[in-house]
Amino acid sequence: MNEHRHHGPAEPGTGAETMVPGAHPASSDHARTAPADQVAGGHGADHGASHGPGHDRHAGHSVAMFRDKFWLSLALTVPVVLLSTDIQEWFGYTVPTFPGSEYLPAILGTVVFLYGGFVFIRGAQGELTDRQPGMMTLITLAIVVAFVTSWAGTLGLFDVEIWWELATLITIMLLGHWLEMRSIAQARGALAALAELLPDTAERVTGDGTETVHLEALAVGDVLLVRPGARVPADGEVVEGEADVDESMITGESKTVSKSPGDRVVAGTVATGGSLRVRVLAVGEETALSGIMRLVEAAQASASRAQALADRAAAILFYVALASGVVTLVFWWLRDDPEGALVRTATVLVIACPHALGLAIPLVIAISTSIGARNGLLVKNRIALERARELQVVIFDKTGTLTRGRPAVAAVATDGAGDEVDVLRLAAAVEADSEHPLARAIVEEAKRRGIDAPDATEFESLAGRGARARVDRHSVAIGGPRLLADSGLEPIGETEAWAREGKTVLHVIVDGRVAGAIALEDEIRPESRAAVLELHALGLKVAMITGDSQAVADSVARRLGIDEVAAQVLPADKAAAVERFQGGGRKVAMVGDGVNDAPALATADVGIAIGAGTDVAVESAGIVLVRSDPRDVVGAIELSRATYRKMVQNLVWATGYNLVAIPVAAGALMPWGIDLPMAVGAIAMSASTIIVATNAQLLRGLRLRREPIVVEPAAAPA
Predict the structure, then answer these.
(1) What is the mean pLDDT of residues 162-166?
(2) CA nearest to 170, candidates 704, 681, 520
(3) Alpha-carbon distances, residue 656 vs 92, 239, 651, 676 (angstroms)
(4) Cα–Cα distance for residue pair 131/198, rounded to 1 Å
(5) Whether 321 contacts 352, CB under 8 Å
(6) DSSP 3-state of 700
(7) What is the pLDDT of residues 259-279, one digit of tens each?
(8) Is residue 239 within 8 Å of residue 226, measured between CB atoms?
(9) Are 306 and 314 in contact (CB under 8 A)?
(10) What is d(CA 359, CA 357) in angstroms, rounded to the nearest whole number?
(11) pLDDT tens across 205-237, in order?
(12) What is the C-alpha end-to-end distance of the chain, expressed in Å?
């Protein structure tokens, strides 16, 4: 369990130990305890660890490192700018001179180059070693050209003075990287937030009371004391006590869940309003929280079609920038402007860095994955989430998905001599001690309506027919059609329609007279109708697969507004049914509880396991929904569409920026007297990156969680 505890600053992007995950998980002991400038994975302190545009070029760089380098470089850059003769001429001031003062900009500029710029040089080293030149290589070429040109001017070889531009360039690049790293760290903060859910210690119950132990000392079978307001340290089963448990950080459900002996609890949840004694069932990597962390981490690192496109574009852009730099250098050199040739070449290399392009997709992926995780929507496969935006049909497995998977009272009818309350009261009295699902449904309905069932005596089970008992000096029997036939009685009028709709009908016989009847059916979730309406609003068709009869399927479909139905489908035939829905090239999602739906989930274009709770090991699903709310399917599709929009927006901006910026930096507007300074090029490049990062952050405004639908109980009888 130790590997998932967070030690250090809680807020991403501000603490000295906030690391951008690289070769090792962010939750590893090494990443948790390494100094700020140390690189995860054992590389050198400032190594870029770049692996081309598609990889994490900042692996091992800490946010604090870029922050510190930026502020110190800025402090050195200010006097370099103030001492520049160009700046003094532009703003009409003069700085007092002293012997050797003419070399001060060169000395300070060199310090900025070595201190602030060396991180880019080390990054370029890594890229060239991997034979995947990219952003760091372009930046390095630019600052080296500017550095050489600056010294050439200082030594009198060229009539140019650009130390202020070199220092400003490096400082702005450090600022851009610092802001980028903060955005990435905040997006990947989902893992840190999950890790922080676990306490550092636990109270283990012993023969003499309790003892405080570290989580790694826990073992399966230990009994733990969880006090009010404390977090549950490990997955387990309640053996003593009652409490409401806040599971929102795991399931996304805002309402607390009552726990009592025999109930399961999950590590990281919070006990409120009571204390619990919990027997440990899983520790360390076996806990549900660890499983969710692995899913989030894998999703953020998984492949993406849009990412592959961005990687190819960034790789091409490097060579375009390099070629543009060479053409710029040769063109202006041949025009007898060597100083301008060097400055414009450096500007082209800076402004063409595929920085924004490299950030366009990974940041959106990281943010969308963390948003999903916070809302109980776990992405196991990035491709599945990308495909969700293209869906045309969403297929629900009926039982346990659109319905609760347990019977509930749908209607009550009487013979006219009594009322529904009397029928339910007598039926609940007979069924009070039965464990049969239909009996439990009747008892629960009576409780929901506030009906107090009297005690029954002389209970008798009628095999295959029902049950009989004496209630309030009356003989009361309850059962199906066979009980009615054996008694020689006729059903009341409403039951025929119920039977046609596929409902289960139980007749209530009082003193040899049919006093009423109760219709039961698999209870439809109150959220199902809303889910179907929202899917229709998104332009999707909704279908249902069930093993029930056609009558039952049609009844449910009619009430929910479902478009297509496949009834009487055996579990083994669900995959074939999905293939039929895919006819004509339709893109189909299959939504099931993962119990017997694995082949169908795997066959569909997008497999969605719903109601998985903390069981994240649903191998056949690309998307796992923690809650049993079918409206979360709508949330998954909305997240897919919003994520794709942000990816496209970022890619269009990043590529369009370079198409315009490179010619301007190369001097294409010189005939009109417009020459882009190198520092302005650096600002434009950094601004492009910040725009992409800010646009990705707008995803956080997406609201995926639906308010719970509360079913009001019927009023209690007067």
Answers:
(1) 79
(2) 681
(3) 38, 62, 8, 18
(4) 42
(5) yes
(6) helix
(7) 889 988 888 888 877 889 999
(8) no
(9) no
(10) 5
(11) 998 888 999 888 999 999 999 988 888 998 999
(12) 56
Catalytic residue among 397, 597, 605, 632: 397
Is 397 part of the annotated catalytic residue set? Answer: yes
The bridge status of strand 588-592 relative to strand 393-397 is parallel
* SS3 track for 633-669: HHHHHHHHHHHHHHHHHHHHHHHHHHHHHHHHHCCCC
Share of the chain above pLDDT 70, in %: 78
Residue 509, judged by CB atoms within 10 A of its CB (0-12, 13-18, 19+), counts as: buried
More confident residue, 604 or 138: 604
Q: Which helix (H) or strand (E) holds 245?
A: strand 243-246
| Burial class of residue 148 in the structure, from the number of CB atoms within 10 Å of its CB (0-12 exposed, 13-18 middle, 19+ buried) | middle
Per the CB < 8 A criterion, the answer to whether 137 and 127 are in contact is: yes
C-alpha pair distances (Å), 550 with each of 45, 362, 408, 557 = 68, 47, 20, 10
For residue 9, the SS3 value is coil
| Residues recorded for the chain | 718
SS3 category, 133: coil
Structure tokens at 219: 């073992």
Contact predicate 393/606, CB 8 Å: no
Beta-bridge partner residues of 377: 625
Tell me the C-alpha distance between 199 and 56, whole Å.
31
Sign for the pseudo-dihedral over CA of 37, 42, 46, 48: negative
The 10 Å Cβ neighbour count of residue 292 is: 25
What is the DSSP secondary structure assignment for residue 717, as one 8-state letter?
Answer: P
pLDDT top residue among 507 and 292? 507
Sheet holding 474-479, edge to edge: 403-414, 513-524, 504-510, 474-479, 466-471, 456-462
Q: Where are the alpha helices (DSSP H) in 95-162?
A: 104-116, 118-129, 135-154
Instruction: Compute CA 681 distance to the chain's CA centroid, rounded to the nearest angstrom.
Output: 36
Return the sign of the alpha-carbon dihedral for residues 66, 67, 72, 78. positive
Residues 72 and 549: their CA atoms lie apart, in Å, by: 74
What is the spatial distance between Cα 409 and Cα 424, in angstroms, rounded to a whole number? Answer: 10
Measured at the CA of 679, the angle between CA 674 and CA 681, to 5 degrees, comes to 60
**Please, are residues 21 and 56 in contact by the beta-carbon 8 Å criterion?**
yes
Given a contact cutoff of 8 angstroms between Cβ atoms, the answer to whether 646 and 652 are in contact is: no
pLDDT tens across 650-666, in order? 888 877 877 888 898 88
| Amino acid 172: pLDDT | 76
Instruction: Give residue 678's region: left, alpha or beta (phi > 0; psi -120 to 50).
Output: alpha
For 70-87, the pLDDT digits (tens) are 899 999 999 988 888 877
Sheet holding 243-246, edge to edge: 257-259, 243-246, 270-272
- State the Cα–Cα distance between residues 633 and 375, nearest whole angstrom: 12
CA 622 to chain centre: 13
Q: How do residues 340-382 score in pLDDT, each as one tens digit?
A: 888 888 788 777 766 676 667 777 877 887 788 778 888 877 7
pLDDT of res. 110 = 94
The C-alpha atoms of residue 13 and residue 183 are separated, in whole angstroms, by 8
Residue whose structure tokens are 């030594």: 155
Is 691's pLDDT higher than 80?
yes
Do 223 and 279 contact (CB within 8 A), yes or no? yes
Task: Take residue 633 and report the two structure tokens written for it.
Answer: 């399917």
Which residues neighbour 645 within 8 Å (Cβ) at sequence distance 6 or greater?
A: none
φ, ψ dihedrals at 418, nearest 5°: -125, -165
